[in-house]
UniProtKB/TrEMBL annotation:
One of its GO terms (cellular component) is encapsulin nanocompartment. SUPFAM superfamilies: Ferritin-like. One of its GO terms (molecular function) is metal ion binding. Residues 121-134 have a biased composition (Gly residues). Its main location: other. GO terms for biological process: intracellular iron ion homeostasis. Keywords: Encapsulin nanocompartment, Iron, Iron storage, Metal-binding. Pfam families: EncFtn-like. InterPro entries: EncFtn-like, Ferrit_encaps, Ferritin-like_SF. It is found in: Encapsulin nanocompartment. Residues 99-134 are annotated as: Disordered. Residues 103-120 have a biased composition (Low complexity). This is Ferritin.
Length: 134
């Protein structure tokens, strides 16, 4: 048995290829999120503005990689897909979303329109819904 989440915890001979691939994606997601954290710290710690810009750029690339891994996982795990559809892209308090999804009003589980992180604005993919030009 392995001692780290990056390693398989069970005998690989007893695991399906799909389970091993999901494990690979989960480990990659963990690594990408760890890299985001490390870059965030480096951006804040440096006094060199040009280095901070470079590190922030690298950090944002890691966010892209993390999002791609998360989407790959969502497409292959119906339960994960359901949870992500419930909790992502809503402005409602997360515990209120949970309460509604656990037996409250089913209409309350419909996510709100996606919101931009604090301080950001612009046209997102959600803003294009309903346009005929897509």
């Amino acid at each position: 048995m392995a001692g780290s989440s990056a390693e398989l915890h069970e005998d690989p001979d007893k695991l399906s290829e799909a389970t091993v691939d999901r494990h690979r994606a989960i480990v990659s997601l963990m690594e990408e999120l760890e890299a985001v954290d490390w870059y965030d710290q480096r951006v804040e710690a440096t006094n060199d503005e040009s280095l901070a810009e470079l590190l922030a750029h690298n950090r944002d690339e890691e966010k892209e990689h993390a999002a791609m891994n998360l989407e790959w996982l969502r497409r292959r795990d119906a339960g994960f897909d359901e949870q992500l559809r419930t909790y992502l892209f809503t402005d409602r308090p997360l515990l209120a979303v949970e309460e509604a999804s656990d037996g409250g009003d089913a209409a309350d589980t419909t996510p709100d329109a996606p919101s931009s992180p604090a301080g950001l604005s612009g046209l997102g993919i959600g803003g294009l819904k309903g346009t005929d030009s897509l």
